[in-house]
């Protein structure tokens, strides 16, 4: 894109902008100062296409004008239902620029949930990625009287075939925007100048493990606080990120975590964002991109570790021997690093240098982590063994903690001060306390959300009048500095014997095995603990193949006696680490892989305990039958 | 080149093919329009695949005319037919198992290669330019058929449904004027079948390539096709849009097995 597109943004900034600083003004300012630097890249037809800051801001303005032409007023909601791609950011930023509110939908949301989210948020415009998402919206259109426009990004399968008057292609939207921009060149800038810190910037629907999702309202000031603490203050990547950093955007952008790491890291610190081709190509894309900062959920790290182990089995004997030896060394390095909080000793440094030559360099290159300087894990607890593995091969892994309702500003492990099993220290300048009676973690700072959209009761439950947020997480202090999360308050199991047990600790110990994907511990008001276990199809499949065990489906594999014996041995070894009351006495195999669309997982792949207990009631009851 | 822009892309008239007295095709005639999805159905051994083999030059009919885009095809060798823009897929996957998805697709570009061996060796000028253009064309297909995640994997390692998709991709890589699909969803599960159906529709609507489809899956044929030809014992029983075909008494008797409107998923009649 030529520089000729930059002045349109620059001309509006000639006058001192009066409006509040938002992520939109941050992008505008970057376009002014570094117009030809690369803001983001997306792989198109096999080639990574670059978008400069000038081109980025130019498109955002055009889309902003289009939204004005469609009549978007301050506070109106614009929904985005798409995988991560450039248009997600264009639409998000344009909405913010015209003081609208962005609502993100998960690409995996089934039609019923799409209907709920669209009608509850009252979105007037929906940006839908392709035929699949358009179909979902059309199916629930009569539930959403406020929805006026559906803008689709991929015309394939839609043009010539669909004739709903609400439909409009992305190109038509851009044309509309260009027309409006020619007629009213200063309209978007005027809107931006009127922005206030209290504008609601986004609704983030938190997929509750119980009940329908709730829309957390984040204001401009909430988000600006998060940008200052987490991005510019180095809360989620230390030392703080900058324009030389590279990130891969692959987790759903409607979740607060990916929004921080993609949109806000990008706007706030100039980090270059790369969009994965699809969730299925994350691994090859990581390899091509070699990001410097990486955020992931435990499931991703577990999957990478499992892949390494599978690849190892099929490597040549010499390679296998070499890798086995160096991974054993990595385990020792990792153990030491965990003890020292991430600081190398002279001994580990030497071992690592040797290992780098023989193994770690190549291994890190293969898994796309060669240049990762800061990796963080969040959204769920990471298994200690997994953390140790990454520390050992030289990927500095830090557990961080936060939630939508406090704009993810809570705690983080800092380089050199990592404490295994904790989520780190409170972010600077915030108040965090643990309620003495209930053990619940509470936070208070300018990032605490405004409230739940159209749900004052839930808002009143979540935040106290004096501004404290009830996180719903039970935790404790470790050494007075670090916070350890025990469990979700409502998940704590009280056994029939009256013991309080945190199921997630046991579940995570089970899931640390590469063969186990899901573990759900049950036992509330029951005589003992039991578990439903789901196998990891890839690794167990490979394990079975090596032993010549033939199988057809997931269920068939799960029920093989050899597989049952394998799982039993894992359960037994995990039991060895827990007190008697915390031991899993019985287990059953899940007959299927858990799925969002079947209502067993939330959109963020968290297990819905209540739903599982109901769906697999037979399996559960059979464990307690005597 | 004599290009007719409005007439049918393919005219198959009064073709006869027999093997040692067995009449495989006994005077079948049909036309395929330039934007049409034309389906051929019939029991096993009815002569569907024979029609494909005659079209693609594998068999030479004893009599009859086949006009493709204004040109006579009878007597052409398979590679000459392919060069004229007629691409096909096979009932069973016929890919190079040890080559990657990209390499298999690049092979589909074979008919578009103009440079000679010398130019290929020095890798300069024409050879380089053409290969880049060919790779770009292949990437369009990777995008179209959503094959991104398997680009660099050997085809032999991929699930069956994906292999079928790669085969379709290789046929598309030729940029054909007419596509012959021989049982594209044979052996697929429901999800793979639905995906394939979507790709077939998109090929007709988005790429604007006419298609002749031979398929056992009646539901698929009735949902997708613009025109259906029913064959039995090498004879055309009926031709028409699906709605008509489903109610044609002749077809019901010969093929659908009695109940009008019934669309059995898979027909295994007379071998």
Walk me through the structure.
The complex is a heterodimer of chains A (626) and B (271). By secondary structure, chain A is α/β, with parallel strands linked by helices. Chain A has three domains: 3-196, ANL, N-terminal domain (Rossmann fold, 3-Layer(aba) Sandwich); 280-487, 3-Layer(aba) Sandwich (Rossmann fold), CATH 3.40.50; 492-624, ANL, C-terminal domain (GMP Synthetase, Chain A, domain 3), CATH 3.30.300.30. Helices cover 41% and strands 20% of the residues of chain A. Chain A has 22 helices and 26 strands. In chain A, the strands form six sheets. Chain A has an eight-stranded mixed sheet with strand order 7-6-5-3-4-8-9-19, sandwiched between helices. In chain A, β20 (469-478) and β21 form a beta hairpin. With 271 residues, chain B is of the alpha/beta class. Chain B folds into two domains: 1-85 and 176-258 and 267-271, P-loop containing nucleotide triphosphate hydrolases (Rossmann fold, 3-Layer(aba) Sandwich), CATH 3.40.50.300; 96-158, no CATH class. Chain B is 36% helix and 21% strand. Chain B has helices spanning 48-55, 78-83, 101-108, 117-122, 126-144, 160-173, 190-205, 218-224, 242-247, 249-256, and strands at 10-19, 22-32, 37-41, 63-68, 71-72, 86-88, 178-182, 211-214, 227-232, 235-240. In chain B, strands 6-7-8-3-9-10 form a six-stranded mixed sheet, with helices on both faces. Chain B has a four-stranded antiparallel sheet with strand order 2-1-4-5, covered by helices on one side. Chain B is globular and about 60 Å long. The N and C termini of chain B lie far apart (43 Å). The chains are: A alpha/beta (626), B alpha/beta (271). The interface between A and B is medium-sized, with 13 and 16 residues.
């Amino acid at each position: 894109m030529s520089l000729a597109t930059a002045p349109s943004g620059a001309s509006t900034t000639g006058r001192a902008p009066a409006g509040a600083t938002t992520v939109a003004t941050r992008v505008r300012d970057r376009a002014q100062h570094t117009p030809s630097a690369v803001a983001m890249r997306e792989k198109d037809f096999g080639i990574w296409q670059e978008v400069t800051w000038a081109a980025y801001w130019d498109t955002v303005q055009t889309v902003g004008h289009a939204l004005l032409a469609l009549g978007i007023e301050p506070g109106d909601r614009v929904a985005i239902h798409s995988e991560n791609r450039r248009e997600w950011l264009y639409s998000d930023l344009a909405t913010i620029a015209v003081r609208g509110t962005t609502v993100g939908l998960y690409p995996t949301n089934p039609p019923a949930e799409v209907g709920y989210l669209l009608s509850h948020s009252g979105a007037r415009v929906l940006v839908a990625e392709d035929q699949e998402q358009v179909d979902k919206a059309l199916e629930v259109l009569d539930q959403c009287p406020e929805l006026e426009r559906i803008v689709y990004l991929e015309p394939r399968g839609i043009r010539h075939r669909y004739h709903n008057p609400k439909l409009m292609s992305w190109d038509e939207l851009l044309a509309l925007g260009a027309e409006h921009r020619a007629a009213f060149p200063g309209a978007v800038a005027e809107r931006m100048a009127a922005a206030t810190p209290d504008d609601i910037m986004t609704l983030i629907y938190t997929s509750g493990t119980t009940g329908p999702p709730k829309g957390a309202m984040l204001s401009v000031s909430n988000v600006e606080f998060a940008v200052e603490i987490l991005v510019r203050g180095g809360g989620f990547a230390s030392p703080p990120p900058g324009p030389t950093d590279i990130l891969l955007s692959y987790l759903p952008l409607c979740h607060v975590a990916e929004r921080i790491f993609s949109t806000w890291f990008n706007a706030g610190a100039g980090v270059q964002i790369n969009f994965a081709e699809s969730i299925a190509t994350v691994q090859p894309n990581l390899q091509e991109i070699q990001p410097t900062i990486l955020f992931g959920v435990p499931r991703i790290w577990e999957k990478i570790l499992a892949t390494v182990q599978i690849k190892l089995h099929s490597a040549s004997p010499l390679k296998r021997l070499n890798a086995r030896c160096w991974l054993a060394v990595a385990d020792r390095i990792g153990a030491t690093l965990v003890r020292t909080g991430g600081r190398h000793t002279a001994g580990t440094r030497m071992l690592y240098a040797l290992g780098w030559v023989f193994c770690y360099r190549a291994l890190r290159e293969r898994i796309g982590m060669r240049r990762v300087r800061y990796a963080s894990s969040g959204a769920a607890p990471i298994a200690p063994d997994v953390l140790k593995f990454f520390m050992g091969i030289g990927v500095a892994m830090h557990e961080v903690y936060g939630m939508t309702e406090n704009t993810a500003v809570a705690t983080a492990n800092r380089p050199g001060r990592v404490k295994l099993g904790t989520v780190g220290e409170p972010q600077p300048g915030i108040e965090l306390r643990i309620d003495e009676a209930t053990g619940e973690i509470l936070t208070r700072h300018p990032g605490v959300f405004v409230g739940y959209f159209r749900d004052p009761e839930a808002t009143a439950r979540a935040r106290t009048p004096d501004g404290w947020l009830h996180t719903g997480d039970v935790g404790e202090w470790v050494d007075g500095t670090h916070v350890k999360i025990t469990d979700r308050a409502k998940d704590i199991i009280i056994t029939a014997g009256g013991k309080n047990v945190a199921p997630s600790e046991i579940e995570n110990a089970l899931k640390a095995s590469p063969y186990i994907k899901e573990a759900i511990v049950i036992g509330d008001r029951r005589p003992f603990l039991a578990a439903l276990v789901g196998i990891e199809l890839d690794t167990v499949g490979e394990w079975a193949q090596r032993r010549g065990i033939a199988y057809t489906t997931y269920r068939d594999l799960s029920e093989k006696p050899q597989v049952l014996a394998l799982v039993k041995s894992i359960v037994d070894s995990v039991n060895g680490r827990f007190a008697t009351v915390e031991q899993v006495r019985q287990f059953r195999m899940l007959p299927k892989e858990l799925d969002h669309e079947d209502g067993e997982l939330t959109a963020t792949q968290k297990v819905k305990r209540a739903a599982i207990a109901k769906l697999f009631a037979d399996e559960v009851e059979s464990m307690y039958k005597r | 080149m004599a290009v007719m822009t409005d007439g049918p892309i393919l005219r198959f008239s009064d073709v006869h093919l027999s093997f040692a007295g067995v009449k495989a095709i006994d005077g079948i005639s049909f036309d395929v329009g330039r934007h049409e999805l034309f389906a051929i159905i019939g029991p096993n051994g009815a002569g569907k695949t024979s029609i494909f083999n005659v079209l693609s030059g594998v068999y030479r009919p004893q009599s009859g005319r086949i006009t493709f885009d204004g040109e006579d095809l009878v007597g052409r060798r398979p590679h000459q037919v392919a060069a004229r823009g007629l691409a096909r897929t096979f009932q069973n996957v016929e890919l190079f198992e040890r080559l990657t998805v990209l390499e298999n697709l690049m092979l589909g570009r074979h008919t578009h290669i103009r440079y000679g061996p010398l130019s290929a060796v020095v890798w300069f000028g024409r050879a380089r330019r053409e290969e880049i253009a060919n790779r770009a064309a292949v990437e369009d297909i990777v995008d179209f058929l959503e094959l991104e995640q398997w680009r660099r994997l050997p085809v032999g390692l991929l699930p069956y449904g994906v292999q079928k998709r790669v085969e379709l991709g290789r046929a598309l890589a030729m940029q054909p004027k007419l596509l012959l699909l021989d049982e594209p969803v044979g052996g697929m599960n429901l999800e793979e079948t639905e995906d394939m159906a979507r790709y077939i529709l998109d090929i007709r609507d988005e790429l604007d390539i006419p298609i002749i489809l031979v398929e056992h899956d009646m539901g698929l044929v009735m949902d997708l096709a613009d025109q259906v030809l029913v064959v039995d014992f090498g004879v055309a029983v009926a031709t028409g849009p699906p709605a008509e075909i489903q109610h044609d008494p002749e077809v019901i008797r010969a093929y659908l097995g009695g109940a009008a409107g019934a669309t059995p998923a898979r027909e295994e009649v007379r071998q």
